[in-house]
Amino acid sequence: MMPYDIIKRPLITEKTSLQKDALNKVVFEVDRKANRIEIRQAVEKIFNVAVTGVQTVQVKGKLKRRGSILGKRRDWKKAIVTLKAGARIDFFEGV
């Protein structure tokens, strides 16, 4: 797989912003079939940073109801990437 197929999008929430500032960890939504080694290589290649660790989480989609119709959101995979000290990824530079 190509690096841009593995890393789908960054997850930017209040919690992930605090992790980024305090612990130098960045969170991405990744392809469900990608393993930790592929995720590490993709982040290093796309953002040109050194990665010290990768943790992955399988997130189950929530059941949602609209009237009598019952549906389900898709399952997805989250990767928490720890960057080497001094390395940074800025998603909103100059904003």
Short overview:
This protein is an alpha+beta fold.
Q: Which homologous superfamily in CATH is the superfamily?
A: RRM (RNA recognition motif) domain
Q: Count up the helices.
A: 3
Average residue-wise pLDDT: 95
Low-confidence stretches: none
Shape: globular
**Main sheet makeup:** 4 strands, antiparallel
Would you tell me the structural class of the helices and strands? alpha+beta
**What Rg is obtained from the alpha carbons, in whole angstroms?**
15 Å
The proportion of strand residues reads 35-45%
As for the CATH topology, it is: Alpha-Beta Plaits
Q: State the distance separating the first and last CA atoms.
A: 32 Å
Layout: helices, strands, pairs:
Layout: H1 3-6, E1 7-10, H2 14-23, E2 25-30, H3 36-47, E3 51-59, E4 63-66, E5 69-72, E6 76-83
Structure description:
The protein has 95 residues and is α+β, with helices and mostly antiparallel strands. The protein has one domain (3-83): RRM (RNA recognition motif) domain (Alpha-Beta Plaits), CATH 3.30.70.330. The protein is 27% helix and 37% strand. It is built from three helices and six strands, in the order H-E-H-E-H-E-E-E-E. Strand 4 and strand 5 form a beta hairpin. The longest helix is centred in the middle third of the chain and has 12 residues, at 36-47. The N and C termini lie far apart (32 Å). The model has no long low-confidence stretch (mean pLDDT 95).
Comma- or semicolon-separated keywords:
Alpha-Beta Plaits, 95 residues, globular, alpha+beta, 3 helices
